Amino acid sequence: MHPQFRPGRRGLRIVVWSLVAALVVVAGLFGVLLWQHSYDMDEQRVSIRHGGHTLNGVLVTPKDGRRRHGLVVYVHGDGPVDATHDEGYKPMWEANAEAGYASLSWDKPGVAGAPGNWLDQSMDDRADEAAAAIAWVRARPDIDGDRIGLWGVSQAGWVLPKVAAKTPVSFVIAVSPAINWLRQGRYNLLAELRADHASTARTHAAIAKSDTTRGLLERHATFEAYVKAMGGDADGMTADRWGFISKNYTADATRELHALRGVPVLLTLAGQDVNVDTADTERTYREALDTGGAMTVKRYPDASHSLLKQSIERSDLKITLTALLSPRSLFADGFLDDQRQFLREL
């Protein structure tokens, strides 16, 4: 080999130390990932029988050495949600555990291999499911049956009071809860149009389409009739989704909220919510509950509907990186602390 092509010792040292530095960085990043995704709680998969089916669940308990714990039962929002909400619930479960509370959640029917189809469910079906889960967990020796409460987000606003009417609950954490299906739908439509700076013509067309859909629902129209009315363009609507909407479009929690009177309620509201009219939600909760201090309201001005920081939620890249490197930082400042404190003060 010609001398000028022989790697010198200095060159070898540079290559070796570059490799060492790269390995250190990779090992450090791997360590950060492990640490960020290690939660101070015990998790176990559980099976709950309900209505001839099995609910595939996760029960999380604190590592505090106590024999029995209170429990937070999770009621999902809309969509095909699994028991952990793609790991998104875990920071909340950890906060619950730090307050001395266990957490229980389960896959929606048809999600993550669970039997059934969540789109076949009414809000009453979902409440029956949650009540069955509470009955199952009350029989466990490691759960204090007198300290079982509910956590629910968005669509769960129609489920939480139904559950409380079926079985005693000792508290409720309502996160961006919906009140009236049709009002919420119209609010969401207009909010998204405003956010998109939609033209007047586009806004009028969207409202007309929404009005047509309402009329079809009131006439109990079939999915085929819906597609025909939309000019043959289903625009993402499926037969299952149309059936789900047809079952639930009359949902309204206004009267049913009375089931929560006297129950400590933490009402959590996002300042940048385009899904739920938080002013209407707060007003309705105050009028229905009026419990002399039993309700606590927490507002997060910079939070989106899901109580994530809006600055993060706007970017898929930011959501992915934050979920990977610092999942607890996804949520609005104070959100986890407030839930932890609420549970401690019960």
Helix % is: 40-55%
Overall shape: globular
Radius of gyration: 24 Å
Measured between the Cα atoms of the first and last residue, the distance is 79 Å
- Uncertain runs with pLDDT below 50, 5 residues or more? 1-7
Q: Which strand order spans the largest sheet, edge to edge or round the barrel?
A: 1-2-4-3-5-6-7-8
Explain this structure.
- This protein is of the alpha/beta class and 346 residues long.
- The chain folds into 3 domains: 3-36; 42-180 and 251-345, Rossmann fold (3-Layer(aba) Sandwich), CATH 3.40.50; 183-248, no CATH class.
- It is 43% helix and 17% strand.
- It is built from 12 helices and 8 strands.
- The chain has helices at residues 9-36, 90-98, 123-138, 160-166, 181-195, 200-218, 223-229, 239-248, 278-289, 310-313, 316-325, 335-345, and strands at residues 42-50, 53-61, 69-75, 101-106, 143-153, 172-175, 265-270, 295-300.
- Strands 1-2-4-3-5-6-7-8 form an 8-stranded mixed sheet, sandwiched between helices.
- α2 links the parallel β3 (69-75) and β4 (101-106).
- It is globular and about 60 Å long.
Condensed summary:
The chain has 346 residues and is an alpha/beta fold. The protein has 12 helices and 8 strands. The protein folds into 3 domains: 34 residues; 234 residues, 3-Layer(aba) Sandwich (Rossmann fold), CATH 3.40.50.1820; 66 residues, no CATH class.
